[in-house]
Amino acid sequence: MKRRILVVEDEIFVAAEIEHVVEEMGLRPVGIAPDERSALALGVQADVALVDLNLRDGPTGIRIGQALAQTHGVTVLFMTANPSQLGNGVPGTVGVLAKPVTDRDLRAALVYAVARHDAREATPPARLRLFEQPEALGATG
């Protein structure tokens, strides 16, 4: 099954390039969302989302990433020129890839994100900073 990829990015040329790489990899783009409203509307169709932080409607990326992960079960990777805005991470999301991003970095991150979505073992690419996952820390309730 082709995994469906959502691109949450307001710079159309960047978004179109990402979508092109997604298609070349044999994955299925579900659309480009430049803001929170369109990201959440398209999120119901996505398996994986690449999310920028600062969008057309302001710094809504963190909220979008949380909603996509927690409400729709989407595997979320942030792609931003401002990774420090994410602090130690966002609950339910995977990690962050700092922009600028090469095609090679993007491909490696997508391979990893799809594997994570499918609950398969995968080695994260070197440029992807993973967030700590509570279940991996042996947290008890």
Polypeptide structure, described:
This protein is α/β, with parallel strands linked by helices and 141 residues long. It has four helices and six strands. Strand 1 (4-8), helix 1 (12-24) and strand 2 (28-33) form a beta-alpha-beta unit.
Fraction in beta strands: 15-25%
Share of helix among residues? Answer: 25-40%
Strand order of the largest sheet: 2-1-3-4-5-6
Radius of gyration: 14 Å
Summarize the helix and strand pattern as letters: EHEHEHEEHE
Q: Main β-sheet: number of strands, strand sense, barrel status?
A: 6 strands, mixed
- Count of helical stretches: 4
Can you tell me the overall shape?
A: globular
Determine the mean pLDDT. 93
- Helix and strand composition category: alpha/beta
- The tally of beta strands, per DSSP, is 6
**Ends distance:** 36 Å
Q: Could you name the ranges where pLDDT drops below 50 across 5 or more consecutive residues?
A: 135-141
Summed up:
This protein has 141 residues and is of the alpha/beta class. It contains 4 helices and 6 strands; from the N terminus they run βαβαβαββαβ.
Topology, please?
Layout: E1 4-8, H1 12-24, E2 28-33, H2 36-43, E3 48-51, H3 61-72, E4 75-80, E5 95-98, H4 103-117, E6 128-130
Helix pairs in contact: 2-3
Give the tags.
disordered C terminus; alpha/beta; 6 strands; 141 residues
